[in-house]
Amino acid sequence: MMRHIERYLAESLNRNLFTSVSMLRPPYTCYSRLYVYYLDRCDLPSIVDPDLIGIWIEDETAILFFHQPKEDFIASLCRASGASIVYQAELGYDDWEAGVEIRSFSTKTLQIRPVWEPEGNLQPGMQEILLDPSVVFGSGFHATTRLCLETLELVILESGMKINSVLDLGTGTGLLAIAAARLGVRRIVALDNNPLAVDVARKNVQRNLCGDQIDVQPFDLMESLPDMDFDLVITNLYKGLLIRLFEDTGFWHNGLYLVSGFIPGMESDLLAALPSRGIKMLHRGNAEQWRLWLLQYGEGLAGDPGV
């Protein structure tokens, strides 16, 4: 059996036969235990295995997630590809999500339901988003994402501002992009630098029948900036990347910026990185220890972003 696996892997490496997977599929209906293998190289073939959840690529390494233990398979993969195991772990799905319970929740007009929960009755005026978070960071069930969802509703439905286009930087599962589509935005571009996140987001967009409105693409913000000509830019990112973006003049274009992913102790550094002119703070939000800003940028604007 081991020789058969190794020969199959070697042939697949040569012929590039594998196809990556990233979502729940039979016989699995939910995520329970995660078996995680961290390898020291990322140039691995995609793997067809019924127990594979997905492969997270980061810093020239690969993190493989399975529903079941795969020591023999991983050992064969390492021999065939020249990779080595940095570490391996077994953990519960909630532990991977930093203790966040993944279950349905609602905002004013949206109900977000993980794919493993049964369908319920939607209240009048509510729209549902069905989500498979897979093992992508920013699953959509974190406090920062809920804060972004509530602010999206505020901007699109209640502010009176016309939002026809949205750019979602670091889309993760694609939830915020899908929410914008549900709220009536016509054109949405969702970007992420991680292939697994791009795959998961695309499948969630397809699942929610939003493909005509949302374009999900791979993009590395550390290398360059995309086209920033959008009515609303969403940046639910980490502090270091936010500062890098804020300090790049090409990041700023007339429009709104929804900024989240930071805690109160980071605000002074982020404020210092904002342009000295043309920025107006429209709204500050908070949920648990997390903070959110809604900024407006315009060359003719006069305003103190610290207010």
Task: Report what the structure shows.
- This protein is of the alpha/beta class.
- The protein folds into two domains: 2-96, no CATH class; 105-297, Rossmann fold.
- The chain is built from eight helices and 14 strands.
- The protein has a seven-stranded mixed β-sheet, covered by helices on one side. The chain has a four-stranded antiparallel β-sheet with strand order 2-3-1-4. Strands 5-6-7 form a three-stranded mixed β-sheet, covered by helices on one side.
- Strand 11 (232-236), helix 7 and strand 12 form a beta-alpha-beta unit.
- Helix 1 (2-15) packs across helix 2 and helix 4 (143-158) packs parallel to helix 5.
- The protein is globular, with a radius of gyration of 21 Å.
Please name the CATH architecture of the largest domain.
3-Layer(aba) Sandwich
Average pLDDT metric: 88
Shape field: globular
What's the gyration radius in Å? 21 Å
Secondary-structure element pattern, one letter each: HEEEHEHEEEHEHEHEEHEHEE
Strand content: 25-35%
Count the helices. How many? 8
Largest β-sheet summary: 7 strands, mixed
CATH class of the largest domain: Alpha Beta
Looking at CATH, which topology of the largest domain would you report?
Rossmann fold
Question: How are the strands of the biggest sheet laid out side by side?
Answer: 10-9-8-11-12-14-13
Classify the secondary structure makeup into a structural class.
alpha/beta
| DSSP strand count | 14
Identify the CATH homologous superfamily of the largest domain: Vaccinia Virus protein VP39
Unreliable residue runs: 1-19
Count of domain modules = 2
**Helical residue percent?**
25-40%
Q: What's the end-to-end separation, in Å?
A: 67 Å
